[in-house]
Design a protein that fits this description.
Rossmann fold, TPR repeat, about 525 residues, 10 strands, 3 domains, alpha/beta, Glyco_trans_9
Length: about 525
Amino acid sequence: MAAAEDNKDILARAAQAFQGGDYAGAVDLLAPAASAHPDDADLASALAYALSRAGSLAQAAEQFDRAVALRPKDAGLLRDAGAVHLRNGNLDTALERYRAAYRLSNNDISLLGNIVDVLLRLERGNDALTLVDGTLALAPRAAALHYVRGVVLGALGRQQDERQAYENAIKLDPRLVDAHTNLGVLARDQHRFDDALRHFKHALAIDPEHPGARTNRAQTNLLLGQFTHGWRDYEWRWRDGGQTMPYAGSPWLGEGKLAGQTLLVHAEQGLGDTIQFSRYVRALVPMAGAVILRVQASLAPLLRTSLPGVTVIGDDVPVPAFDRHVPLLSLPLALSRQGAEPWPLGQPLRADEALAREWAALLPARGSATRPRIGLAWSGNAGHPDDRNRSIPFAELAPLLDAPCDFVCVQKDIRPADLAAIEQWRTVAGHDNLHLPNDALRDFSETAALMANLDSVITVDTATVHLAGALGIPTILLLPAMPDWRWQLNREDTPWYPSVSLRRKTAGSDWIEVLQELRDKLKAGR
């Protein structure tokens, strides 16, 4: 009985810490108790949630599995376990957890949507469509199912059918905000921007608090260069389920003074986003008593040498005490309220000179004194929602390497299919102008030093373009027809990085035309 009472006390104290935003404190309370009482489902599940909110996703996934083993019939726990496995990149396990939750949920359509999302990430769109159509046959007047069908059809590139599915959903439920919102996204993807904004306006007339409509309207305005409206709506990203604010209390968004206070700026999205928006951090130094920038550990050494006056820490160390916090991508809004310029380029990042000399000695000699040495990155994070549009399989990229240049891979990770394609490519005589230094790229300081020895970089939309652009290296960015909002439309340059030029794929085409044109220019020495 005493042990049970002790556990109740620990759970109560951990819940108090959790509600106060002290997720690390909740973990510290729960971990020893959960270890001492491995059969206590309450402790196991509480620790799983605390680890998740503390950002320890790998540990959280393992702990959720322990909790699920103790509570295999808890649909909510299974659903949240699936969500953590999804965030941690464990797609197959996420799918298994979501399916188990769905079986227990009496056909909860939101859980069906989770299953469909994972199937699409696994590039199993046809399986997703079969699942949805089978369910729809049993409930043909379920508006939400028509909406989910539209999502799948969109992923399969069947835009006309996608649009019809959303319209079918709205006929059955005119107030289905998600369908109105996705009609806006579809219109944006088709460059029908007035229609897109009209659909978002319609969605928000139904539900002014709908985060998906707000966030997508933000991205549309940012794409169109309407930054004042865009940054304001972009704050709704914290409510759309894709991100969780990791610190308690309202963030600083430019209101009030920071004099004498310690401001924590925290990275929130991908590595490229952190590089891109770190430019704003130096503007905070004169405003606050101290500025701490918390970023991905692999970026900390590089940014530490490039941001004087800022304490840069990795996300692998404890967070020091602070007074206020602000997400990194909220800085354009916050600083605009302080009268800052919209495009503060700041000082470029700098590669470590000693590391650059080490890389100069490691790289193969050039084919000739005048032969260009070009960095190459053809894929990014495989878990990115738009990966299928922005990454290029190596087999499709390979003809570019016929150009008389020495190519150096500057992406750290190469997918197994691409490694196999590279080995196949190398079996052809003369295919010896690609160097793979990937194991030596321990962090972005190493990649920056490698890039310092290159004449230029060719890359898809991944962290590579941000690093090369921030280093001031001439760079060609290969973009899909509908790019991420930051690259805007109908331009070959970008105000984010003066050294970067943009090459865009046309709608409905593959990469062959863009790559062939680029190869011809390289062959001509341009």
